[in-house]
Every structure is written in structure tokens, then in C-alpha cells.
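Hey, resending since the last one bounced:
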Amino acid sequence: MNIRRAPLTSVVVLGLLSPLAACSSASTAVEACMAKQAVSATSGEVEGTYVGEDDAEGVKVTFKASDTRTGGTVTVHHWPTGDWYESELGETFDGSGTWDVEGGTRPGDHARVHLSFTEPELFLRGYTLDMLSVATNAERTYLYEDDDPDVCPAFRLRLT
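The C-alpha cells again:
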């Protein structure tokens, strides 16, 4: 009786392990599903329009660089609000503000984009997502909420 189940069990286990083999060359969950975390980035590298994926579906963000190397203006559509410790993202808004990018300052750090919203109104820290991490390779750039390094970020934006 156990002999008949053994082949089926082997097929199920092999099927579950197959996706892991495809990601075995990735050093982090971020790299496995998007691109490598950027150690540093300039405003020119971040500049552009991003569209949301997964939890960020429907979100659109446009970054315009200023004359400095570190930031510029940002326009958001359907940007989420609410307490980020809750399971629901809450309402969304369309607005604008400024942004700046900073590189990792310590070993193991990576580049981050800080957002400061001025329209429709100022938000209190933590009321809306105001910091995104940067992942990039030769083919694509992502901005994402870096909340758990062991899983693919659910809130991510891809440069179009």
C-alpha cells in the first residue's frame, strides 16, 4: 500500500521544489523576483514613470529629477494611505511632492527613495508609504516596500 503512494509523493515533492531551483542563483528574495538591490542610485537613474504590480496594482508614480543628483518632484496616482501595520492598505489619493534618493551608507545597506507629499495635504509620518528601496539590473528598475527581506516584496513599482 505504501509502495503505490511513494511515486505520487515523489512527484508532488519534486513539483514543489522545481520553482526553487530556478531561483537558486539569486542571493536574496528581491533578486529572485525583481532585480538586484542597488547599493547606490542617482536621481537620473530613478527618474521616470513607474506602474504598480501585485499589491501596488493600479498605482502610477512619475519622478522628475531636478538639477541636483539626489532628487526632484514626484506625482502619484492611486497612492495608498492608512496604517502600514494593518493588513489593508486603506484609501488612495492622487498627489504630488518631492523626493530624494540616498545610497547605502553602511555595509549591507542599499539605495532608498524618500517621498515627501505636499498635495493634497501634508501626511504624518507612517500614514502613507514614504520610503521605497531600489532594485535594478541592465533590463529593469523597480522601487518597492522593503518590509521582509525573505520574501518577494508585494508592493512594487516597475519603471516603464
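The first strand starts at residue 36 and ends at 37.

Sorry for the duplicate.
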